[in-house]
Write a structure and sequence with these properties.
This protein has 304 residues and is of the alpha/beta class. The chain has a single domain, classed as TIM Barrel (Alpha-Beta Barrel). It contains eleven helices and ten strands. Strands 1, 2, 3, 4, 5, 6, 7, 8, 9 and 10 form a ten-stranded mixed sheet that branches. Helix 7 links the parallel strand 5 and strand 6. It is globular and about 50 Å long. The two termini are 31 Å apart.
Length: 304
């Protein structure tokens, strides 16, 4: 039986991690880390759409048991929830964090320490939640954490609103990508998160993620070690475009993509003020979404 080694270990041993850190930090000077391309100087305290300057903000970190089974296992997924978001959906279930800024500034050493605490508590992975806008900070903290003995998979848990150029910087660093693919219709994306380019951006991003890590791989205990998981939240009023999203995944990524069809929508944040969103998803709507995934040819998915 082979011993697992996360991708970032070899990247650091080859001296490539320091180069990635240097490149990522320079990106903060005129930030185009995410598709918003605000071009603010975050190193000088200027704030763009993500409302985050040089230091990352963290709302919480803990062993989480509500994630996908291959991440949770027996001891939980080691989640680090970053404050703010570059997408800011109006229906976000963590509205106080993504929009309200609930959280505290976190120095690089603190962030590295969180990773090590989660590992020492037995978590199966480090699950970076909403990491897109803090990629430079994550890379720097990871370097410190590796020195401290970090050796478990790194999960990039994002909205899917990611630049391919930034993802390329993460090649050889991230073991498991777990993006959302939220909507297919640009009009829906504009209405819900002021990002009409979301479907196009997410499609390109997820193709790149799969290029890097491939289909999800599990160890002998059923715990994820490498690969792609795609989340898709079923929404009311057909806003998710489930059939189109699933067909894209099946035809352009892989029919063996591990897809989580999620039955967790509830009106949160500003969604209560939008007629189409101010309602729950029926059992029939959810079952139809699952069937659409099967019809598209998806062979491997959870329905949580």
């Amino acid at each position: 039986m082979s011993t697992f080694q996360p991708a970032y270990i070899e990247t650091k041993e080859k001296g490539l991690l320091r180069n990635k850190i240097s490149t990522a930090r320079k990106m903060l000077k005129s930030c185009q880390i995410c598709p918003r391309a605000c071009k603010v100087d975050r190193l000088s305290g200027e704030l763009g759409e993500c409302a985050t300057g040089e230091d990352a903000l963290v709302s919480s970190f803990n062993a989480h048991f509500g994630e996908e089974p291959p991440l949770v296992g027996a001891l939980g997924s080691g989640t680090i929830f970053f404050t703010h978001c570059n997408l800011k959906c109006n229906f976000c279930q963590n509205y106080d964090v993504s929009h309200g800024g609930e959280g505290e500034e976190c120095a690089l050493g603190q962030l590295a320490g969180m990773m090590l605490i989660l590992q020492n508590n037995g978590c199966h992975n480090i699950n970076l939640v909403t990491p897109t806008h803090v990629v430079p900070q994550i890379l720097s903290a990871l370097d410190m954490a590796i020195e401290g003995g970090l050796r478990i998979p790194l999960v990039y848990n994002s909205s899917g609103y990611d630049n391919v150029e930034t993802l390329e910087l993460l090649e050889g660093v991230i073991d498991i990508y777990m993006p959302d693919f939220k909507f297919w219709d640009p009009k829906v994306a504009e209405q819900t998160c002021n990002a009409p380019d979301y479907p196009k951006v997410a499609a390109k991003a997820i193709v790149e993620m799969h290029r890097q890590v491939g289909d999800l791989q599990l160890d002998e205990n059923g715990i994820a070690t490498r690969g792609l998981i795609v989340r898709h939240l079923v929404m009311p009023s057909g806003f998710s475009g489930t059939g189109e999203v699933m067909s894209f995944i099946a035809d352009h990524i892989s029919k063996d993509t591990y897809v989580n069809i999620m039955d967790q929508y509830r009106p949160c944040g500003a969604a209560l003020h939008v007629e189409e969103l101010a309602q729950s998803v029926s059992e029939t709507q959810f079952k139809n979404a699952v069937q659409q995934a099967k019809n598209a040819g998806i062979r491997r998915f959870a329905a949580l």
